[in-house]
Design brief:
single chain, alpha/beta, six-stranded mixed sheet
Length: 796
């Protein structure tokens, strides 16, 4: 084939459309950003670095990604927008060159037991179709294999107009669902210990109920004491069989209590609906403690935890039911599906194979489809969300990732790097917020924010290549090549915690001694059984303080002062100094500004348009009544104290008129974890992931205990912050505590006194202790994947 060029022709003129190769940000001021302006290249991988709280998430998520989503939402009709979340325009002068943003964050998936890995990725939907086509015996449509659909049937007469006459016809319907009728698709049934609900030796009028929130005289209590179904002055142990049934299990019925229409239902039914249906992690501590005491969850005896009805489990393909398929390790399930050869469903099989292979490719082949979504770690949840993107045909999309290396062993990080580069090479823009040097190294473009955190951050310190960052002299550049050294000598254990024959999840009859009185790191590839070993085998209770990865739950009214309990001491100090009651010094109680109800801003709902928040004119954003601000402590009012940074407040409460030992102790713990720059009244919703992790750690440091279990405390921490964390762990051990850390970060491994390495692989290829001993021995032996990567890290 030849090409002919006409004489005198000019090369094609550049198209205007080809000039939009940059995302331009000018004057970004969201949260702590200080008029940030920069240009990001499209179809490249850009890594955003900087210390925790420097403004990375504010720039990437709250500015670039948020504006992209807002503009897309505005393309829908006003009717559709009414059902969508309203997003305000970020505080930025100009945002130009945006493309559709797909956010893959670390937010945990819903904790409902009916939400599983399979339902979150559509793998279950494809399996249900497959079994409805090929399963023997044939039992019905895909609905028959869904544990979210109950089997129902009904019959009755319907009235029709036909030929000018009204006729009645008998109609019936039935839907065959796959839900287990006993556990309603949850896989577990709850058994309530009635002795924890009431004291049967007392009468209702005598205060028999022992449930939190049910106090004599309250509406919840009066519902039972004034129902009329039984004598409220009779001890509950003397109730007849019918009276006890009415008290505990009566179906809902409307009645008047104290002249007000209310719905009466049995106490057990009410608790199941009002408390037991909620996510335990969202409960207040005292409610959670009550549930832990009163309720035991056991595997459903009817479906054996599969959530499916007997009919759904009876249909099989090559001897495998859909329950068996969902319980398989995904890598094994992929092999089983690959062996199926049925031309009638070839496209479905191809799509299912691709989805299952994507799990293995992304390092999640050790999971099973019936694993509840709420039990996934933040890193696992993020990678499950990535499954949808790996086979996508979309190009020129902006993918936004929030620390995709969280929860990944150094061995797994290499695989993750390859996946991100594949997304970029398909013509997409990839924006990554990251701290790990291994991932920073693959960036085409690097943006370093800082120089500090909070008010000391919010500026672009460096923009350019990785090599340029290394030579830049910024905090990140300075620490980029940091390598923690092996300690010349390690501490001797003061005792041991014996774990014998552990079989939780994938553990294979593991017996190991965890040394006490030292810094012990439990490591291994993702899915090797680290959390199963520690969280499943170390007894909970007195003396054990556990700090997990779960994010802090709080509203815009929550702040470090309320979360740590500091505000209680501050309010008491103000009340004592001024001779008034403490409630006046709460913006959520009597002292709140009446105009904004203590929020400091007034929110105006504009229906499908973004709501507008304006600073309250009466309190000028200080949240308190003017009269309350007249009361002083050490020359400061309550709003001025809440505006203080932790370091300033520590000095304020450490000496002089405002001296308060309890408040000073809490502030000292916050400073110890590196949060000295955070203001006491800063809303929790504005804290970064790393700041939330350290705030939680500081709070748990106050717990009385001899054994601290920390699950990936380096999550969200900058290289410079990791140094401070290591110092904190050393102080805990030197104070006589035993610290057990589940961690992948090589700096923490190198700093340990003892390492327990699980593996050799993930899922059923893991579950064994492949090494236990000091880090120096592991590095010298290089006998495991962890040993190889740790040796390379310390330069051995």
């Amino acid at each position: 084939m030849s090409t002919v060029t006409r004489a005198g022709t000019q090369p094609p003129a550049a198209q205007a459309a080809d000039s939009h190769d940059l995302i331009r940000v000018h004057g970004a001021r969201e949260n702590n950003l200080k008029d940030v302006s920069l240009e990001l290249p499209k179809r490249r991988l850009t890594v955003f670095t900087g210390v925790s709280g420097s403004g990375k998430s504010s720039l990437v998520f709250d500015t670039i990604a948020a504006e992209s989503q807002r503009l897309i939402n505005e393309t829908y009709s006003a009717f559709v927008q009414g059902f969508m979340p309203t997003l305000a325009r970020p505080d930025v002068d100009v945002l130009d060159g945006l493309t559709t943003a797909i956010i893959v964050d670390q937010q945990r998936m819903g904790a409902d037991p009916r939400s599983t890995v399979g339902t979150a990725t559509d793998a279950n939907a494809m399996l249900r179709i497959l079994f409805s086509r090929l399963g023997e015996p044939h039992i019905g449509s895909p609905k028959a294999f869904s544990f979210n659909i109950a089997s129902i049937s009904g019959a009755g007469a319907v009235t029709l107009e036909r030929g000018g006459q009204t006729v009645k016809e008998k109609r019936s319907f039935s839907i065959t669902g796959g839900m287990c009728p006993r556990c309603e698709g949850r896989g577990a049934v709850s058994d309530i210990d009635l002795a924890e609900l009431y004291d049967d030796g007392k009468s209702l009028n005598g205060g028999a109920l022992t449930i939190p929130g049910y106090t004599p005289g309250g509406w919840g209590y009066r519902l039972y004491s004034e129902s009329g179904f039984y004598d409220p002055d009779k001890p509950i142990r003397e109730f007849t069989k019918k009276e006890l049934s009415d008290f505990l299990y009566h179906e809902p019925v409307r009645m008047k209590i104290g002249g007000i229409n209310q719905t009466y239902e049995g106490l057990v039914l009410r608790l199941q609906r009002s408390i037991l249906s909620k996510d335990p992690d969202a409960m207040q501590p005292h409610i959670r403690a009550f549930v832990d005491r009163a309720v035991t969850f056991t595997t459903c005896p009817e479906c054996d935890g599969t959530r499916l009805s007997g009919l759904a489990r009876s249909s099989r393909i090559s001897g495998v039911s859909i329950a068996d398929a969902c319980a398989m390790q995904i890598s094994d399930l992929a092999e089983w599906v690959a062996r199926l050869d049925e031309p009638s469903v070839a496209p479905l099989l191809a799509s299912l194979r691709h989805t299952l292979d994507s799990f293995t490719e992304i390092g999640l082949g050790y999971l099973s489809l019936d694993r509840t979504a709420g039990s996934l770690s933040g890193g696992e949840a993020q990678r499950v969300k990535m499954i949808r993107q790996l086979g996508s045909s979309l190009t020129d999309v902006t993918y936004v990732f929030d620390e995709p290396t969280v929860g990944l062993h150094p061995h797994d990080i290499q695989r993750m790097n390859g996946l991100l580069l594949r997304l970029r090479d398909k013509g997409n823009t990839v924006l990554v917020v990251e701290h790990k040097p291994e991932m920073i190294a693959i960036g085409d473009h690097v943006v370093d924010l800082g120089p500090g955190a909070g008010a000391a951050g919010g500026s672009v310190c460096f923009e350019g290549t990785v090599e340029g960052l290394r030579a830049s002299g910024t905090v990140t550049g300075h620490h980029l090549d940091d390598r923690a050294k092996l300690k010349p000598s390690v501490r001797a254990p003061s005792g041991k915690l014996e774990i014998r024959h552990a079989t939780t999840h994938n553990l294979r009859d593991v017996s190991v001694d965890v040394p006490l009185g030292v810094l012990c790191v439990v490591t291994g590839v993702a899915g090797s059984g680290k959390s199963s070993l520690i969280h499943g085998s170390v007894p909970r209770g007195a003396g054990v303080v556990s700090v997990d990865q779960r994010s802090i739950r709080g509203s815009r009214r929550s702040n470090p002062a309320t979360y740590t309990g500091l505000l209680d001491h501050v309010r008491s100090a103000f009340a004592k100094a001024n001779g008034v009651k403490p409630a006046l010094f709460s913006a959520n109680s009597e002292g709140a500004c009446p105009s904004c109800n203590g929020a400091g801003v007034i929110y105006t709902d504009l229906a499908m348009m973004a709501g507008v928040a304006t600073v309250c004119e009466e309190c000028e954003g200080r949240r308190f009544q003017a009269a309350v601000l007249e009361y002083k402590l050490g020359g400061r009012d309550i709003s001025e104290v809440l505006a203080m940074a932790v370091d300033e407040a520590a000095s304020f409460f450490g000496a002089g008129e405002a001296k308060n030992a309890a408040a000073h102790a809490i502030l000292g713990r916050l400073a110890d974890v590196g949060l000295g720059y955070v203001s006491l009244g800063q809303p929790l919703t504005t804290l970064s992931g790393g700041e939330q992790q350290r705030l939680k750690l500081a709070t748990h440091m106050a717990d009385k205990g001899g054994v601290y279990i920390l699950d990936e405390p380096t999550a969200g921490l900058h290289l410079a912050d990791v140094e401070q964390l290591l110092g904190l762990l050393d102080r805990l051990v030197d104070a006589g505590k035993s610290v057990i850390v589940i961690e992948h970060h090589q700096a923490v491994m190198a700093h340990a006194d003892w390492i327990i390495d699980l593996g050799p692989g993930a899922g059923h290829d893991g579950g064994l202790v492949v090494f236990e001993g000091p880090p120096a021995v592991l590095v010298a032996a290089r006998s495991t994947l962890t040993g190889e990567h740790l040796a390379a890290y310390v330069g051995a």
